[in-house]
Amino acid sequence: MLKAGETMGYLGRDIEVVSINQTQYLVASCDSCGAIGMKDLDELKIPWSVTGRLTTRVALLEVLSSGAVPQLMTVAISNEPHPTGDRILEGVKEELQAAGLSTLPMAISTEKNMFTQQTGLGISLIGVIEKKQLRIGTAQSGDDVYCLGLPKVGPELKNPEDSEIVQVKDLQILLNSMRIHDIVPVGSRGILLEAQQLATSVNCQLIVDSACILDLDKSAGPSTCLIFTATTSLVLQLSSSGLARLPITKVGKLT
Predict the structure, then answer these.
(1) Which of 98, 124, 158, 228 is the most buried (most CB within 10 A)?
(2) Structural domain for 194, as ranges
(3) pLDDT reported for residue 153
Protein backbone atom coordinates (compact mmCIF):
# COMPACT_ATOMS: atom_id res chain seq x y z
CA MET A 1 0.00 0.00 0.00
CA LEU A 2 1.34 3.44 -0.95
CA LYS A 3 2.25 6.07 1.60
CA ALA A 4 0.97 9.65 1.25
CA GLY A 5 2.50 11.34 -1.77
CA GLU A 6 3.59 8.12 -3.48
CA THR A 7 2.20 7.21 -6.89
CA MET A 8 1.62 4.07 -8.90
CA GLY A 9 1.21 4.02 -12.65
CA TYR A 10 -0.49 1.28 -14.65
CA LEU A 11 1.25 0.34 -17.88
CA GLY A 12 -0.92 1.08 -20.89
CA ARG A 13 -3.78 2.66 -18.92
CA ASP A 14 -4.61 6.36 -18.91
CA ILE A 15 -4.86 6.29 -15.14
CA GLU A 16 -2.72 7.26 -12.16
CA VAL A 17 -3.19 6.40 -8.50
CA VAL A 18 -1.72 8.65 -5.79
CA SER A 19 -1.80 8.15 -2.04
CA ILE A 20 -3.18 11.31 -0.41
CA ASN A 21 -3.35 10.11 3.20
CA GLN A 22 -3.24 6.91 5.23
CA THR A 23 -6.65 5.71 4.06
CA GLN A 24 -7.35 7.19 0.62
CA TYR A 25 -6.08 7.21 -2.95
CA LEU A 26 -6.55 9.93 -5.57
CA VAL A 27 -7.34 8.35 -8.96
CA ALA A 28 -6.90 10.40 -12.15
CA SER A 29 -7.67 9.54 -15.77
CA CYS A 30 -7.62 11.41 -19.06
CA ASP A 31 -8.60 11.08 -22.70
CA SER A 32 -7.96 13.17 -25.78
CA CYS A 33 -9.75 13.46 -29.10
CA GLY A 34 -8.59 15.13 -32.30
CA ALA A 35 -9.99 15.61 -35.81
CA ILE A 36 -13.38 14.16 -34.85
CA GLY A 37 -16.23 16.64 -35.17
CA MET A 38 -17.65 19.08 -37.72
CA LYS A 39 -14.63 21.27 -38.49
CA ASP A 40 -13.46 21.62 -42.11
CA LEU A 41 -10.36 19.44 -41.64
CA ASP A 42 -11.84 16.86 -39.28
CA GLU A 43 -11.19 13.30 -40.48
CA LEU A 44 -14.42 11.90 -39.03
CA LYS A 45 -17.52 14.05 -39.31
CA ILE A 46 -19.86 13.59 -36.35
CA PRO A 47 -21.83 16.12 -34.25
CA TRP A 48 -19.71 17.85 -31.63
CA SER A 49 -22.10 16.70 -28.90
CA VAL A 50 -21.18 13.11 -29.78
CA THR A 51 -17.47 14.03 -29.64
CA GLY A 52 -17.99 15.43 -26.15
CA ARG A 53 -20.03 12.50 -24.94
CA LEU A 54 -17.74 9.74 -26.20
CA THR A 55 -14.57 11.41 -24.90
CA THR A 56 -16.14 11.97 -21.50
CA ARG A 57 -17.18 8.31 -21.20
CA VAL A 58 -13.56 7.12 -21.57
CA ALA A 59 -12.36 9.13 -18.59
CA LEU A 60 -15.43 8.11 -16.59
CA LEU A 61 -14.99 4.41 -17.31
CA GLU A 62 -11.34 4.47 -16.25
CA VAL A 63 -11.93 6.16 -12.91
CA LEU A 64 -15.12 4.27 -12.10
CA SER A 65 -13.61 0.89 -12.98
CA SER A 66 -11.03 1.42 -10.23
CA GLY A 67 -13.86 1.79 -7.73
CA ALA A 68 -13.20 5.51 -7.21
CA VAL A 69 -15.88 8.17 -6.83
CA PRO A 70 -15.45 11.10 -9.31
CA GLN A 71 -14.84 14.47 -7.66
CA LEU A 72 -13.77 16.87 -10.43
CA MET A 73 -13.54 17.03 -14.23
CA THR A 74 -11.56 19.31 -16.53
CA VAL A 75 -12.65 19.98 -20.12
CA ALA A 76 -10.01 21.48 -22.44
CA ILE A 77 -11.53 22.46 -25.79
CA SER A 78 -8.98 23.55 -28.40
CA ASN A 79 -11.65 25.48 -30.34
CA GLU A 80 -13.78 28.61 -30.10
CA PRO A 81 -16.46 28.81 -27.37
CA HIS A 82 -19.31 29.23 -29.89
CA PRO A 83 -20.55 27.10 -31.50
CA THR A 84 -17.98 24.30 -31.11
CA GLY A 85 -17.43 24.67 -27.38
CA ASP A 86 -21.14 24.87 -26.65
CA ARG A 87 -21.94 21.72 -28.63
CA ILE A 88 -19.08 19.73 -27.08
CA LEU A 89 -20.18 20.73 -23.60
CA GLU A 90 -23.71 19.58 -24.38
CA GLY A 91 -22.33 16.10 -24.97
CA VAL A 92 -20.13 16.21 -21.86
CA LYS A 93 -23.13 17.11 -19.72
CA GLU A 94 -25.32 14.46 -21.36
CA GLU A 95 -22.80 11.74 -20.47
CA LEU A 96 -22.46 12.98 -16.91
CA GLN A 97 -26.22 13.01 -16.53
CA ALA A 98 -26.47 9.45 -17.88
CA ALA A 99 -23.88 8.42 -15.28
CA GLY A 100 -25.78 10.10 -12.45
CA LEU A 101 -23.07 12.75 -12.11
CA SER A 102 -24.85 15.87 -13.40
CA THR A 103 -23.60 17.97 -10.46
CA LEU A 104 -19.92 17.04 -10.90
CA PRO A 105 -17.77 20.21 -10.76
CA MET A 106 -16.04 21.10 -14.07
CA ALA A 107 -13.17 23.41 -14.97
CA ILE A 108 -13.57 24.46 -18.62
CA SER A 109 -11.19 26.12 -21.07
CA THR A 110 -11.68 27.05 -24.74
CA GLU A 111 -9.52 28.63 -27.45
CA LYS A 112 -10.39 32.33 -27.71
CA ASN A 113 -7.46 33.70 -29.70
CA MET A 114 -6.83 31.46 -32.70
CA PHE A 115 -8.95 30.30 -35.63
CA THR A 116 -9.05 26.49 -35.71
CA GLN A 117 -9.95 24.09 -38.51
CA GLN A 118 -9.87 20.80 -36.61
CA THR A 119 -11.69 19.75 -33.45
CA GLY A 120 -9.54 19.16 -30.37
CA LEU A 121 -10.68 18.02 -26.95
CA GLY A 122 -9.08 16.79 -23.72
CA ILE A 123 -10.96 15.43 -20.71
CA SER A 124 -9.45 14.74 -17.28
CA LEU A 125 -11.23 13.23 -14.30
CA ILE A 126 -10.19 12.95 -10.66
CA GLY A 127 -11.76 10.58 -8.16
CA VAL A 128 -11.16 9.42 -4.59
CA ILE A 129 -11.32 5.93 -3.12
CA GLU A 130 -10.63 4.25 0.21
CA LYS A 131 -7.42 2.25 -0.14
CA LYS A 132 -8.99 -1.02 0.94
CA GLN A 133 -11.64 -0.66 -1.80
CA LEU A 134 -9.31 -0.16 -4.80
CA ARG A 135 -10.29 -2.74 -7.42
CA ILE A 136 -7.14 -2.59 -9.55
CA GLY A 137 -5.01 -5.73 -9.33
CA THR A 138 -7.74 -7.83 -7.69
CA ALA A 139 -7.89 -10.57 -10.37
CA GLN A 140 -6.98 -14.06 -9.21
CA SER A 141 -5.41 -17.12 -10.77
CA GLY A 142 -8.24 -19.32 -12.06
CA ASP A 143 -10.46 -16.36 -12.97
CA ASP A 144 -12.08 -16.35 -16.38
CA VAL A 145 -11.62 -13.20 -18.47
CA TYR A 146 -14.73 -11.86 -20.20
CA CYS A 147 -15.43 -9.04 -22.65
CA LEU A 148 -18.61 -7.00 -22.24
CA GLY A 149 -19.74 -5.24 -25.41
CA LEU A 150 -18.06 -5.14 -28.83
CA PRO A 151 -14.98 -3.24 -30.04
CA LYS A 152 -15.99 -0.43 -32.40
CA VAL A 153 -14.08 2.53 -33.78
CA GLY A 154 -14.34 5.43 -36.22
CA PRO A 155 -17.28 5.37 -38.67
CA GLU A 156 -18.77 2.36 -36.83
CA LEU A 157 -19.52 4.58 -33.88
CA LYS A 158 -21.71 7.62 -34.49
CA ASN A 159 -24.44 6.76 -31.98
CA PRO A 160 -23.42 6.97 -28.30
CA GLU A 161 -26.53 4.91 -27.46
CA ASP A 162 -25.43 1.98 -29.66
CA SER A 163 -26.94 -1.16 -28.10
CA GLU A 164 -23.71 -3.15 -28.62
CA ILE A 165 -21.38 -0.85 -26.69
CA VAL A 166 -20.80 -0.52 -22.97
CA GLN A 167 -22.42 2.38 -21.14
CA VAL A 168 -21.40 3.77 -17.77
CA LYS A 169 -24.58 2.29 -16.26
CA ASP A 170 -23.38 -1.18 -17.36
CA LEU A 171 -20.08 -0.68 -15.55
CA GLN A 172 -21.99 0.38 -12.46
CA ILE A 173 -23.81 -2.98 -12.47
CA LEU A 174 -20.47 -4.79 -12.49
CA LEU A 175 -19.16 -2.61 -9.67
CA ASN A 176 -22.05 -3.67 -7.46
CA SER A 177 -20.67 -7.22 -7.33
CA MET A 178 -17.54 -7.73 -5.26
CA ARG A 179 -17.32 -11.19 -6.83
CA ILE A 180 -16.16 -9.46 -10.00
CA HIS A 181 -12.50 -8.64 -9.70
CA ASP A 182 -10.51 -6.48 -12.15
CA ILE A 183 -12.44 -4.34 -14.64
CA VAL A 184 -10.49 -2.74 -17.50
CA PRO A 185 -11.99 -0.48 -20.21
CA VAL A 186 -10.59 -1.39 -23.63
CA GLY A 187 -9.24 1.36 -25.85
CA SER A 188 -7.28 1.66 -29.06
CA ARG A 189 -4.81 -1.12 -28.20
CA GLY A 190 -7.44 -3.86 -28.35
CA ILE A 191 -8.80 -6.59 -26.10
CA LEU A 192 -5.85 -9.00 -26.26
CA LEU A 193 -3.18 -6.56 -25.11
CA GLU A 194 -5.39 -5.26 -22.29
CA ALA A 195 -6.09 -8.83 -21.13
CA GLN A 196 -2.42 -9.82 -21.32
CA GLN A 197 -1.38 -6.81 -19.27
CA LEU A 198 -4.13 -7.51 -16.76
CA ALA A 199 -2.74 -11.03 -16.37
CA THR A 200 0.83 -9.76 -15.98
CA SER A 201 -0.25 -7.26 -13.31
CA VAL A 202 -1.35 -10.14 -11.04
CA ASN A 203 1.55 -12.47 -11.95
CA CYS A 204 -0.58 -14.71 -14.16
CA GLN A 205 -0.67 -15.81 -17.78
CA LEU A 206 -3.62 -15.43 -20.12
CA ILE A 207 -4.77 -18.55 -21.93
CA VAL A 208 -6.96 -17.38 -24.82
CA ASP A 209 -10.19 -19.31 -25.32
CA SER A 210 -10.10 -21.02 -28.72
CA ALA A 211 -13.85 -20.47 -29.10
CA CYS A 212 -13.60 -16.67 -28.78
CA ILE A 213 -14.92 -15.09 -31.97
CA LEU A 214 -13.98 -11.49 -31.22
CA ASP A 215 -11.27 -9.61 -33.12
CA LEU A 216 -8.94 -9.33 -30.13
CA ASP A 217 -6.57 -6.89 -31.84
CA LYS A 218 -9.20 -4.43 -33.03
CA SER A 219 -9.32 -0.95 -31.50
CA ALA A 220 -12.29 -0.37 -29.22
CA GLY A 221 -12.13 3.38 -29.86
CA PRO A 222 -13.73 5.27 -26.95
CA SER A 223 -13.87 2.17 -24.72
CA THR A 224 -16.85 0.61 -26.46
CA CYS A 225 -16.17 -2.61 -24.56
CA LEU A 226 -14.46 -3.64 -21.34
CA ILE A 227 -12.89 -6.78 -19.93
CA PHE A 228 -13.43 -8.16 -16.45
CA THR A 229 -12.44 -11.22 -14.46
CA ALA A 230 -14.89 -13.42 -12.58
CA THR A 231 -16.12 -17.00 -12.15
CA THR A 232 -18.22 -18.72 -14.80
CA SER A 233 -21.19 -19.14 -12.44
CA LEU A 234 -21.31 -15.42 -11.76
CA VAL A 235 -21.29 -14.55 -15.46
CA LEU A 236 -24.30 -16.78 -16.02
CA GLN A 237 -26.12 -14.67 -13.43
CA LEU A 238 -25.05 -11.45 -15.15
CA SER A 239 -26.45 -12.68 -18.46
CA SER A 240 -29.93 -12.58 -16.93
CA SER A 241 -29.44 -9.17 -15.31
CA GLY A 242 -29.51 -5.65 -16.72
CA LEU A 243 -26.51 -6.60 -18.89
CA ALA A 244 -28.53 -9.06 -20.97
CA ARG A 245 -28.70 -6.63 -23.93
CA LEU A 246 -24.91 -6.73 -24.34
CA PRO A 247 -22.80 -9.60 -25.65
CA ILE A 248 -20.66 -11.20 -22.93
CA THR A 249 -17.82 -13.16 -24.54
CA LYS A 250 -15.26 -15.35 -22.81
CA VAL A 251 -11.79 -14.21 -23.82
CA GLY A 252 -9.72 -16.66 -21.80
CA LYS A 253 -8.52 -17.75 -18.40
CA LEU A 254 -5.86 -16.60 -15.94
CA THR A 255 -3.39 -19.26 -14.81
Answers:
(1) 228
(2) 144-254
(3) 93
Helix (H, G, I), strand (E, B) or coil at 181: coil
Provide Rg for the chain, Cα atoms.
18
Q: Which of 157, 217, 158 is nearest to 191 (CA)?
A: 217
111 in the same domain as 78: yes
Give the C-alpha separation, 243 to 132, whole Å. Answer: 27
Q: DSSP string of 159-176? A: -TT-TTS--HHHHHHHHT
Mean pLDDT by 10 residues, the chain (255 residues): 54 78 95 97 96 96 96 98 98 96 98 98 98 93 95 90 92 87 94 96 96 97 95 68 81 96
10 Å CB burial of residue 117 (0-12, 13-18, 19+) is exposed
DSSP string, 56-115: HHHHHHHHHHTTPEEEEEEEEE-S-IIIIIHHHHHHHHHHHHHTT-TT--EEEEE--SS-
How far is 21 from 71, CA to CA, in rounded Å? Answer: 16
Same-domain check for residues 206 and 112: no
Q: Within a 10 A sphere around the Cβ of 179, how many other Cβ atoms?
A: 9
DSSP 233: H
Burial class of 242 by CB neighbour count within 10 A (0 to 12, 13 to 18, 19+): exposed
Asked whether residue 238 is assigned to any structural domain, the reply reads: yes
- Rounded Cα gap, residues 50 and 88, in angstroms: 7
Rounded to 5 degrees, φ, ψ at 36 are -125, 110
